[in-house]
Design goal:
Blueprint: H1 4-37, H2 43-51, H3 58-69, H4 74-81, H5 96-120, H6 124-132, H7 137-165, H8 169-174, H9 182-190, H10 196-227
Helix pairs in contact: 1-5, 1-7, 3-5, 5-7, 6-7, 7-10, 9-10
Length: 228
């Protein structure tokens, strides 16, 4: 476990997981906000559409992105047809960016739902009171909505970050050698290498890192909870 290679891969896994978490939460918050305050009668239908990916296989969604990002895939074909590029490129598939995009799409529903629940529990009277006191919509959002929804944001970030760190299917299918994550190495130890003790040691090391992240998130949740 002390080999620099494994620490490099672990750091890469943490960076990719952090980027996925950031991308997912940033895109999920506006969706959850719209569902809470602007969806109206369409809320039930839109919530059903949000949860629709749960009805499909995770592998199918990853393979779908592989088809989209492939050399002769949908994205390359669209760029060529629009005249932006003259020939296909390999710049999309087998890259860390492909892993981030695929994972962000796969875990988006897991981020939308906790944020939606947090927003939905905010008393509408607080927002109305802020408006009555002369607060503009952005000020009301910044001082009332956002602080009260932070527990949901932290929960969403945690729900996305923890499984993303140990993911090995997505890097294997849409990522290249530069996208190898710690989950891939752990799977190799339990599989081809048949070195279960070392695989267990790697797993424990990753669990300790994730535990530290969870404790930090728990501390942040208490801080935001005490402020609101």
């Amino acid at each position: 476990v002390s080999d620099p290679l494994y620490w490099t891969v672990t750091l890469r896994s943490l960076i990719i997981a952090a980027l996925v978490t950031l991308a997912t939460v940033v895109t999920a918050y506006p969706v959850a906000y719209y569902l809470t305050f602007h969806a109206g009668r369409r809320r039930g239908l839109l919530l059903f559409l949000v949860t629709l990916p749960f009805w499909t296989s995770y592998l199918l969604r990853v393979f779908a992105w592989k088809i989209v990002l492939a050399y002769n895939g949908v994205l390359n074909s669209a760029l060529i047809e629009s005249g932006i590029w003259s020939e296909p490129t390999l710049a999309f598939l087998n890259t860390p960016a492909a892993v981030v995009v695929t994972l962000a799409h796969a875990y988006a529903p897991f981020a939308i739902l906790p944020i939606y629940v947090a927003l939905d529990t905010i008393p509408k009277s607080l927002i109305e009171a802020a408006s009555d006191l002369g607060a503009r919509p952005f000020t009301s959002f910044r001082r009332v909505v956002l602080p009260n929804s932070m527990p949901g944001v932290l929960a969403a970030a945690l729900v996305v970050f923890v499984p993303t760190v140990g993911d090995y299917v997505t890097p294997a299918l849409v990522g290249g050698p530069a996208s190898t994550m710690i989950g891939t190495l752990i799977q190799a130890q339990f599989g081809k290498a048949n070195d279960w003790p070392f695989g267990a040691a790697l797993s424990v090391a990753v669990m300790l890192v994730i535990l530290c992240v969870v404790l930090v998130a728990r501390f942040a949740d208490r801080r935001f909870g005490s402020r609101t």
